[in-house]
Design brief:
This is Outer membrane lipoprotein carrier protein LolA. Keywords: Lipoprotein, Membrane, Transmembrane, Transmembrane helix. By secondary structure, the chain is of the alpha+beta class. It folds into three domains: about 5-50, no CATH class; about 65-205 and about 230-235 and about 250-310, outer membrane lipoprotein receptor (LolB), chain A, CATH 2.50.20; about 320-409, TATA-Binding Protein (2-Layer Sandwich), CATH 3.30.310. The protein is about 15% helix and about 30% strand. It has helices at about 30-35, 60-70, 95-100, 115-120, 190-195, 310-320, 355-360, 400-405; strands spanning about 75-85, 125-135, 140-145, 150-155, 160-165, 170-175, 205-215, 215-225, 235-240, 245-255, 260-270, 290, 325, 330-335, 365-370, 370-375, 380-385, 390-395. The radius of gyration is 23 Å and the shape is globular.
Amino acid sequence: MAPYESDDMTTAGDVDEPRTGRRRAARYVVPVTVMGVAAATIGLVPALADSGDPDLPEITAAQLIEKIAQSDVERLSGTVKITTDLGLPNLGGLENSLTSGAMGRGDDGGSSADPSAKLTELASGTHTLRVAADGPDRQKLSLLENAAEYSLIHNGEDVWGYDSGSNEVYHGTVDASGEDREQRPPATPKDFAEQALKSVDDTTSVTVDGTAQVAGRDAYKLVVKPKQSGSTVGAISIAVDHRTGMPLKFTLTPSSGGAAVVDVGFTQVSFDKPSASTFDFTPPKGAKVTEDDAPAKGREHSGKPERGPKSEEDLGKGLDGLKMLGEGWNSVAVLDTGGEGGLPTGGTGGPGGDLGGFLGSLGDEVKGDFGTGTVFSTRLVNALITEDGKVYVGTVTKDALVKAADAGK
């Protein structure tokens, strides 16, 4: 069995050959630096298929990255399975409370169909998604739950979110220019691969590791690894469709070993044009409809927070004092909150209650040239909060985080 093969894989439909007139997938950006990386960084020796895997033409890592960059797939439909295991602690009732609040079911009267909250569920556990796309103006993503389904539909300038469990509908619009159409959490192998390939530089090893089958399609396996020690990222494996260049599966394994932190891949895929009715939506009878009355171009003046994740540049502008230490996979973001004292403290019944003690119990106290602080760890991201009010965050080990804090003192 090929490394990416699973029992529920099905054969996809025929693939449309790339058309000269079709708009390139400009949203899928591979930095120019990727194409100019030194030969020592990207493996130039073609990898041969292992026995039992698809027998495909030889290809180098540089050629495969270029194939991904030139992929112009804009029409597809299929099923995606996504599993995320960051190793977060079990917060019990507190976790349920936070989830309930994020879903807009608290006193603020928000809608459970708001995608900015609903799709955060993808950050943990295993989920099945149905996806469909027909060019830049029509996409649909459905999150399948035990007894309900959540759908997010983009059709022209309209964006609809529908939660069948609560029978609630969210309706908003997007900028006709398309500037904010990509403001959503990553949900497909292509989304995750895009972010991974942005990290490719001279601190990265990129190779082709044979071939595999994903959703019944022959694919190459591109493997991205940090050259540096100290990163929590062990390896990133991307299965790339050999005909279209479309990423079909993305797997991130931690340097600590064990199960993947992120594993997302198609179990069924077709590159035929979806039916136009796939993207039609009319609020069901009796559904509660929440309108987002903030125009896409005027949200900064509306007093309402912008939907979806911001770009790195926007985040930098919004976080005064944010700076970066280190390079490549060992980069650490540093934010000076300006407040000394480390974690919030306070006795039972006081303003902070036992919050400081509770948070401290979830982390490890560390000391260094920087002073004293607490490290909070997941299987991928670690954060250090120091007593002088600084926060260090990165995909690096606890020891590397402390070293970064010492160096940034």
